[in-house]
Amino acid sequence: MALYPSFFKCSDYFTGASPLALASVSPSTREWCECHKDGVLGCTYDREGRHVLTFPPSSNGGQLSFLRWWLARQGQPPLRIDVGFSGEDAISMDRMCTIKTLMQQLLKDGVYFTLKLSFRDVKSLRGFTDLFPYSEELFLHRCDVPPFGEPGIFPLLRTVELSNCSGAPSLNPLNTDVNVISAKFSSCSSVDSLDALINIQYIREVCIEDYRMVNTDCLRGCSLLKSVSVSRCGGLASLDGLSELSYLAKLCARDSGVRSIGALTHCSMLESVDVSDCKQLSSLEGLSGLPYLRRVDARGSNISSLDGLRGCRQLEYVAASRCEHLVSLSGLSQLENLRTLYASETNITDVDALRTCHMLEFISLIDSRMLTSVDGLGGLLHLKQLGLCGHRLATVDALKHCPALVTVDVSCGRDLISLDGLSGLQHLTCVHASGTGIQNVQSLQSCPMLELVNVNSCGDLTSLDGLSGLRNLSHVNAHGTAVTNLDALRGCPALEYVAVGGCERLISVEGLSGLGNLRHVYASNTSITSVDALSSCPALEYVDVSYCHQLPSVDSLLSIRGIRVKFT
To answer: Residue 167 pairs with which residues in a beta bridge?
Structure first.
């Protein structure tokens, strides 16, 4: 038995399928070889552990007999045969004959199997009806689909998916196919009606996208539904048909015409709701108090408050970006499990409601132009990432009480003149403060883990002195600032990237001399007069000193092999 693991390792040496001689040594080697990505004779295991044969195998008679022998061996789990048909060559007499022959032989050998049928760009399905009784999964993409025929034609069907199909498919045969658990229809305007879904009592998942539905009444009788998607249904105005689905856990109504979600108040098992880009939706009333709700996405909707989320104690994720009428986050107060919040491009003025959201780790408030205070964030001990780009803040002092902060973006706020609120943050690695009114970076000297500092376009910044001695600092972008030298960077041994282009007052790069890891320097449009200091940087790969009119020569760099220099 100790030899068997060695066989398993051997199978990894084959770029294609494992040899039959190796795979047939024992049941264990068979299973190991079939777990290889190319399997044995087309047989593999999928992610769910099901035994799968991907068709077509070779039509060679000898190969087919090997396959029959292989599949008929004892102790094998039920088999699923995956068969795909595409375009005008979908029906091949030889291929269909091979499929039918194999099916007949497997039935004779007592091998239980089902089919997964995939059709793409097929004009007619009439030649495939003999396969339907064995079909467990049916996928049709850009096909001309006729009525499926009499009820019961798909006795084993569990999954059906139609996308971009034409013709006049009727779903009535699905009424009697009680095994169906998943049905998806996308951009199939020719489907006459979805009413047949109401009688599929065991169905668990329904996805209806880009369809001319106006309500969800066809789902009223699907009492076991756990997942519903009705995205891109512009005419859909009501979700009332979902009101009695007590097992519903996931709803996606993205980019639909939904005006109210009040019907969801009785869906007590809901965990996730996506109503993003629902322009007619003005309120989240209907979600309040749902005990298992963890995720809500209302980006791009017309909501003006988050009050509908009150009492959702398990809520972990809220997205309300691009809601231009949203002026308050008060509905999030007391949500102690909230970890992620997106509220960018809104009109909120403060974040006081977040004081009691003690588990918050990520907050994005980008382009919230009315935001004047972040005092409500003080004391959030788990906050790691904060995006405030595009604000009206004058201070970020409250952030000094957020000890877990790793990344902070306070860019594009001319009223901000100081980074003192970041002083002493021991885990801070990235600071983005471009386009602000800061005058120095002294407060960053007590942030030992800093790796990246972006102070691009801070016109009032005259010195980088606060960066001296930061041993993990690898990237500095001070493009377009008023710095005159880079002496503060001497004590930054990990520095790899420096951008100081457009710093017209910069007259020297001596501060970069001898930095062993420095690879890229961008110093175009500056007043430097020499680049000799860079010749002592052994890892240097690229230097841009274009349009430096005070610089007479770059000969000291051109003599060093491997350095690319841009100089005009």
So the answer is: 145
Alpha-carbon distance of 378 to 355, in angstroms, equals: 7
Residue 497, classed as helix, strand or coil, is strand
Q: Look at strands 182-186 and 205-209 and give their pairing.
A: parallel
What is residue 365's three-state secondary structure? coil
Q: Is the distance from CB of 428 to CB of 452 less than 8 angstroms?
A: no
Which DSSP symbol is given to 449? T
CB 303 within 8 A of CB 320: yes
Question: Which of 327, 387, 331 minimizes the C-alpha distance to 362?
Answer: 387
**Pair of tokens at residue 31:** 């299973």
- Greatest alpha-carbon pair distance for the chain in Å reads 89
Q: Is the peptide bond before 169 cis (omega within 30 degrees of 0)?
A: no
The token duo for 128 is 């495939």
Name every residue whose Cβ is closer than 8 Å to that of residue 438 and which is 6 or more positions away in sequence: 416, 417, 418, 419, 455, 458, 460, 461
Place of tokens 């022998």: 69
The whole-number pLDDT of residue 1 equals 41
pLDDT at 311: 95
For the segment(s) 462-568, the CATH number from 3.40.30.10, 3.40.190.10, 3.30.390.10, 3.80.10.10 is 3.80.10.10
8 phi and psi angles, rounded to 5 deg: -60, -45
For the record, the structure tokens of 403 come out as: 């000890």
Give the pLDDT means over successive 10-residue stretches in the chain (568 positions): 49 60 64 66 75 67 68 72 79 75 86 91 84 92 76 84 80 66 87 75 92 90 94 94 95 97 96 98 97 98 97 98 97 97 97 97 97 96 98 96 98 96 98 98 97 98 96 98 97 98 98 97 98 96 97 94 93
The burial class, CB within 10 Å (0-12 / 13-18 / 19+), for 550 is exposed
Pick among 3.30.40.230, 3.80.10.10, 3.20.20.70, 3.40.50.620: CATH of 204-281? 3.80.10.10
Indicate the pairing of strand 497-499 with strand 340-342: unpaired
The DSSP string of 224-290 is T--EEE-TT-TT----GGGTT-TT--EEE-TTS-----GGGGG-TT--EEE-TT-TT----TT-TT-
